[in-house]
Amino acid sequence: MASYRRSTFLFWFLLQAFLLLSFTVVQSKDDDENNLLQGLNSYRQSQNLPILAKNDKAGCLADKIAEKLEDQPCPAGRSIAVAQLSNYADSMDKCGIGMNNTREGVVLPVCVSKLVPTLVLTNYTQTQFARYINDTRFVGAGLGSEDDWMVVVLSTGTPGGSFARAHRSIPTAGFTGLSLLVGMLLLLFV
């Protein structure tokens, strides 16, 4: 009887252990992005640089760019170019970023199989991207990821890099000028 209890206990114990070990914790892409931002900020603090604040519009743009890169294979080697913002005019518009007044942001895409956190961080801090991560002009960051791609979009605190919506001053000025002209014509004829 004792061996039966022991066998039953051992069976249930092994079954529970198997079930616990077989269900791995699935990490969401938001967790990957938040962990990377935390890692980048820890790195910047170790370099006596200010931390990067989360920039929602830069995050939206990073997500859109990551979606475009999703189906592309990782390039051979580690040479991935810094992407120009002008290449992503449609994505910028969808995220409410004014193309005409945003010139100082930078897009940093990396491809790491399974987005292994330490390798992703190393790709930003130990490659050609480190010069941007170390640049004090950049005060904000947005992150996006899809499959093996992680995209960091850095923003500055200046009007040309804060990713604010473009001002509609030219159409407004044109309307104001037209209204003034019509008003003057009415005064002449009345």
UniProtKB/TrEMBL annotation:
<keyword id="KW-0732">Signal</keyword>
<keyword id="KW-0472">Membrane</keyword>
<protein>
    <recommendedName>
        <fullName>Uncharacterized GPI-anchored protein At5g19230-like domain-containing protein</fullName>
    </recommendedName>
</protein>
<dbReference type="InterPro" id="IPR045285">
    <property type="entry name" value="At5g19230-like"/>
</dbReference>
<dbReference type="Pfam" id="PF25884">
    <property type="entry name" value="At5g19230"/>
</dbReference>
<keyword id="KW-1133">Transmembrane helix</keyword>
<dbReference type="InterPro" id="IPR059083">
    <property type="entry name" value="At5g19230_dom"/>
</dbReference>
<feature type="domain" description="Uncharacterized GPI-anchored protein At5g19230-like">
    <location>
        <begin position="33"/>
        <end position="154"/>
    </location>
</feature>
<feature type="transmembrane region" description="Helical">
    <location>
        <begin position="170"/>
        <end position="189"/>
    </location>
</feature>
<keyword id="KW-0812">Transmembrane</keyword>
<feature type="signal peptide">
    <location>
        <begin position="1"/>
        <end position="28"/>
    </location>
</feature>
